[in-house]
Amino acid sequence: MTLPLIGILRGVTPSEAVDIAHALLEAGITRIEVPLNSPSPLESIALLAERFGDRALIGAGTVLTPAQVKKVHAAGGRLIVSPNARTAVIEAARALDMQSFPGIVTPSEAFDALDAGATGLKLFPAVQVGIEGMKAVRAVLPPGTLLYAVGGIGENNFAEWRAAGVDGAGLGSALYKPGQSAGQVGHQAKALVRAWQAAGGDNE
């Protein structure tokens, strides 16, 4: 069982990706995405998949097309995270037995994504939708739907989001900013994991 937290390494480079990912795993974060607008993202994904693929779910974020899904799969990635809910991307990921977390805001987007086979839903940007907006969406989703909040969620508000019904979170700038050392990222990761657990964030 793993924590329902996805570490977002936007801007990470291949030369530092392995050390930073190792720090995340040491803290208990075993799902890692390298957004495709990072430097040489497929190289980083390939390195991480080779090194940690047996004990972590490695993949890509900011995935916008089916062609990108195939490239991520070829690099060894098994997780597809998108800022939007394009059914062709979801279907391409599921056809390759990859996990797919598309970005949604509205119920229409949520149901289209689920119909296409999404593993779970990424509420993005969560800070814009807000907790009340999230609760309204959550209320109409099928039982068991995984809903992850991404964007503006962190140590200071985990408890509020968890109490309102969110299942997990994607951790971006609170976890990693370009140029930070593996040691610094590890410290931030441990603090975020402690805060998530203190907020009642159990394992999946």
TrEMBL record:
Transmembrane segments: none annotated. InterPro entries: Aldlse_KDPG_KHG, Aldolase_TIM, KDPG/KHG_AS_2. The keyword Cytoplasm does not apply. Keywords: Carbohydrate metabolism, Lyase. Pathway: Carbohydrate acid metabolism. It holds the Pfam family Aldolase. Homotrimer. NCBIfam families: PRK09140.1 (NF006600). This is 2-dehydro-3-deoxy-6-phosphogalactonate aldolase. It comes from Vreelandella malpeensis.
